[in-house]
Amino acid sequence: MKYKVYLTKSREVADIIMKAHQVGEEGIKSIGCGVSSLYMEVPAMYQSENVFCCVVRYNDDADVQPYQLIIA
Description:
By secondary structure, the protein is mostly beta strands. Helix content is 12%, strand content 38%. It contains one helix and four strands; from the N terminus they run E-H-E-E-E. It is globular and about 35 Å long.
């Protein structure tokens, strides 16, 4: 599985990022959004109740990096 993790201090920004992606397009398998402390894909140093994230999970054959962390 490949991941793209977006971190932000705004729940609204995380929701917008989530809506910009579609499951089934570009190899996207699933999308999750919420408080960063609930996602194991977020590095421990960024897990907090005050940090939100959008985690995009890709199929192994998707043409993306294996792991990408983006601070928005």
